[in-house]
């Protein structure tokens, strides 16, 4: 090595790179101007020689290639170039390949672009937004993004790990050698970046991080959009974002959903996994026709993101699980549903994450995503890590995940799974840390949810936000401005649990438990509720809904139809998680049609004025009756349910004098029952019952439900009724013979 070159070398800095303990390798490696010359330095451990070849050297007297000098036998090379602008170039690195017996077989030459030729690629304003905790699209900055820089194709890798001593990106493009692509830290932001020429879509990769205690571990990319099927902690470079929409397809303007007939089908994507086609493809073929035919307004798809063990333990918050299919297949599924008029809701789990090594847990050697105190950062009952919602890192990460699902896939809403675990510090714990006021509410999580619900609606108006919450926390669906959490709807877990306990009783003993049905009305209007019926998260714990019921197959089917009828006539939005086996298709289709047709079933479902009990204490008959109504009396419906195992002659009070016509029965032969809708029209009689001056009598089949619509008298009919009443109750003088 010539003396001038030797004097220019920073040997201490070179040692940092050789021992992989450098956070600013770009300050040493790559081209650096030295007066009228350029010092070019490169590190290729294990190599024999390095030759630099220029892409274009049209000027006379300039060589097309230069052999670099060996500065250190560990593979460090340097060359002083007689120009201030060396232009684009490529390294041709020669290695010796050896056989197992140690004999040299041949020499191999590998081409490398110089990643350190490109510096400070990320925009400073984006980095500033990230450090301030206001970056709702961090996935567009961090992660792996194929791009072209200075006519050189490659992938820009960027990761946030503020406490790392050194980060290397390793993958298919560098034989997983962490010494080759040591990443560059941007100022004091904690973000490391590196553009790797030659890396491409489909390449597998990880980040190797050296901690402050010199421990070394490999992690998946927190912002990866694809993961490896064989090992989900190995990330895969996705396609370039170019050409994708900047935001989700235009949605409806923000509106009050309480008056809309929202009927949701809940699907577990993993129940479609396996076989020759992917789960997403099978859902397109099998589930879309079923949901459309049955008349559901929405589909709620369970967690599709890459997970570990239990499917709710998310590993990657931006990558669909490869066990379900590809990102493109899911995009097609969403588009197919939306083209058919079905809105898509997606499960999203910002409450906890998988503790797997190589995931988010212990990232960069610290508790970057979870709480440092295990009493706050770990859920012992489910074996999962809990997010630290006071952290800007978590705020950016989760906001970007939720926003990306809406932006990339064009979905219409998110169901936030595990809300109760977010809201309460003592949820599922025996040892916990109270908040600053000594209470058990997670104030940081409450603030996080309020901010997220506000931000997502501002960015994508009309996005439906639903809380899967089993707690009694107040104000889940109240506006943020009134100190609520700002959700549109809340899963009413208590409704299904209470109803399941009731309907699973022997019909002989249901009468004395009718109060449990009445109890549901004590909380039915506290929030804007969705009523889950046999949701997947429940059936996993207690088995199929039919298996809970008493009696033979026919009796169980009758009870199932009765339960569906009760669900659709009870105040609250509807959700059905029964697997489509054909047996329920007819009745669900009819109930969805009725739900959309009759205003009394859907208007103002969160208003207690829409519901009124008529009779709910008939312990001997096990029958109940109630009214669903609007401000218009002609919309009123009377619902009668027989929970006993025998046919009943049941009389119930009614609100108005007039006619009542049966419009629906769960025992209809079209649904597999044994009767049909009665064609007779019943007139209310003057018998006082249930605190009413009028009543009607009906014959109702065992374990069935009927719906009757109120029909007011016409003026002519009313005159006749009045005349008849006068004749019935007024003595008339008779002419004596």
Strand content: 25-35%
**Cα-atom radius of gyration:** 34 Å
| CA-based shape | elongated
Helicity range of the residues? Answer: 10-25%
> Major sheet: size, sense and barrel closure?
8 strands, parallel, barrel
What is the highest CATH level, the class of the domain at 506-526 and 544-574 and 607-737? Mainly Beta
Q: Please name the CATH topology of the domain at 506-526 and 544-574 and 607-737.
A: Immunoglobulin-like
Distance from N terminus to C terminus (CA atoms, Å) equals: 148 Å
Question: Can you walk me through this structure?
Answer:
This protein is of the alpha+beta class. Among the domains are: 111 residues, Immunoglobulin-like; 119 residues, Immunoglobulin-like (Sandwich), CATH 2.60.40; 183 residues, Immunoglobulin-like, CATH 2.60.40. 23% of the residues lie in helices and 26% in strands. The chain has 16 helices and 36 strands. The strands form eight sheets. Strands 18-19-20-24-25-26-27-28 form an eight-stranded parallel beta barrel, surrounded by four helices. Helix 5 links the parallel strand 19 and strand 20. Helix 4 runs parallel beside helix 5 and helix 13 runs parallel beside helix 14.
In brief:
This protein is an alpha+beta fold and 737 residues long. Among the domains are: 3-113, Sandwich (Immunoglobulin-like); 118-236, Immunoglobulin-like; 506-526 and 544-574 and 607-737, Immunoglobulin-like (Sandwich), CATH 2.60.40.1180.
Note the main attributes of this structure:
6-stranded antiparallel β-sheet, Immunoglobulin-like, 16 helices, 737 residues, alpha+beta
């Amino acid at each position: 090595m010539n003396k001038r070159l030797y004097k220019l070398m920073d040997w201490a800095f070179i040692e940092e790179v050789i021992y992989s303990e450098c956070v600013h390798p770009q300050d040493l490696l790559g081209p650096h101007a030295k007066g009228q010359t350029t010092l070019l330095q490169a590190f290729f451990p294990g190599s024999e020689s390095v030759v630099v070849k220029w892409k274009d050297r049209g000027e006379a007297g300039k060589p097309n290639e230069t052999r670099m000098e060996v500065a250190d036998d560990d593979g460090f090379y340097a060359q002083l170039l007689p120009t201030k602008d060396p232009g684009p170039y490529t390294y041709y690195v020669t290695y010796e390949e050896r056989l197992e017996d140690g004999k040299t077989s041949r020499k191999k030459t590998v081409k490398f672009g110089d990643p350190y030729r490109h510096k400070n690629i990320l925009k400073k304003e984006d980095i500033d937004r990230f450090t301030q905790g206001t970056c709702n699209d961090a996935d567009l900055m961090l992660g792996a993004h194929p791009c072209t820089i200075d006519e050189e194709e490659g992938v820009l890798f960027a990761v946030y790990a503020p406490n790392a001593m050194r980060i290397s990106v390793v993958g298919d493009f560098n034989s997983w050698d962490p010494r080759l692509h040591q990443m560059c830290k941007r100022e004091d932001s904690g973000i490391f970046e590196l553009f790797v020429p030659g890396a491409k879509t489909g390449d597998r990769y990880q980040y190797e991080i050296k901690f402050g205690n010199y421990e070394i571990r490999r992690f998946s990319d927190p912002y990866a959009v694809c993961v490896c099927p064989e090992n989900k902690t190995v990330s895969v470079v996705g396609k370039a974002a170019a050409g994708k929409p900047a935001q989700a397809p235009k949605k409806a303007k923000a509106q009050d959903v309480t008056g809309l007939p929202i009927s949701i089908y809940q699907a577990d994507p993993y129940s479609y996994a396996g076989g020759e086609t992917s789960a997403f493809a099978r859902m397109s073929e099998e589930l879309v026709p079923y949901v459309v035919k049955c008349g559901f307004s929405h589909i709620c798809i369970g967690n599709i993101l890459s997970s570990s063990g239990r499917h709710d333990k998310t590993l990657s918050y931006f990558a669909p699980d490869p066990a379900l299919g590809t990102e493109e297949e899911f995009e097609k599924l969403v588009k197919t549903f939306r083209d058919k008029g079905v809105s898509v809701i997606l499960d999203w789990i910002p409450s906890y994450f998988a503790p797997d090594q190589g995931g988010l847990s212990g990232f960069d050697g610290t508790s970057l995503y979870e709480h440092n105190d295990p009493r706050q950062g770990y859920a012992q009952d489910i074996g999962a890590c809990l997010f630290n919602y006071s952290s800007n890192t978590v705020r950016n990460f989760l906001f970007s995940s939720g926003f990306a699902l809406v932006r990339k896939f064009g979905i219409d809403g998110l169901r936030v799974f595990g809300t109760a675990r977010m809201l309460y510090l003592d949820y599922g714990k025996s040892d916990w840390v109270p908040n600053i006021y000594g209470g058990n509410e997670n104030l940081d999580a409450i603030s996080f949810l309020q901010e997220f619900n506000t931000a997502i609606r501002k960015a994508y108006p009309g996005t439906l936000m639903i809380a899967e919450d089993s707690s009694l926390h107040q104000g889940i669906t109240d506006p943020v401005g009134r100190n609520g959490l700002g959700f549109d709807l809340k899963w009413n877990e208590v409704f299904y649990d209470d109803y399941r306990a009731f309907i699973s009783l022997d019909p002989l003993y249901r009468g004395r438990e009718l109060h449990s049905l009445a109890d549901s009305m004590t909380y039915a209007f506290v929030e804007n509720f969705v009523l889950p019926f046999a949701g997947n998260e429940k059936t996993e714990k207690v088995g199929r809904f039919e298996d809970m019921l008493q009696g033979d197959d026919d009796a169980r089917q009758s009870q199932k139809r009765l339960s569906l009828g009760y669900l659709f006539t009870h105040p609250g939005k509807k959700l059905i998680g029964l697997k489509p086996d054909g047996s329920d298709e007819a009745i669900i289709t009819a109930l969805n049609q009725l739900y959309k047709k009759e205003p009394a079933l859907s208007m103002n479902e969160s208003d207690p004025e829409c519901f009124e009990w008529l009779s709910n204490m008939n312990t001997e008959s096990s029958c109940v009756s109630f009214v669903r109504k609007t401000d218009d009396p002609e919309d009123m419906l009377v619902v009668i349910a027989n929970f006993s195992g025998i046919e009943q002659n049941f009389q119930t009070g009614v609100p108005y004098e007039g006619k009542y016509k049966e419009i629906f029965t769960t025992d209809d032969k079209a649904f597999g029952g044994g009767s049909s809708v009665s064609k007779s029209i019943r007139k209310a009689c003057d018998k006082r019952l249930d605190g009413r001056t009028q009543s009607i009598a009906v014959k109702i089949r065992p374990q069935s439900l009927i719906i009757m619509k109120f029909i007011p008298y016409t003026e002519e009919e009313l005159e006749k009724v009045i005349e008849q009443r006068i004749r019935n109750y007024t003595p008339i003088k008779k002419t004596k013979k």
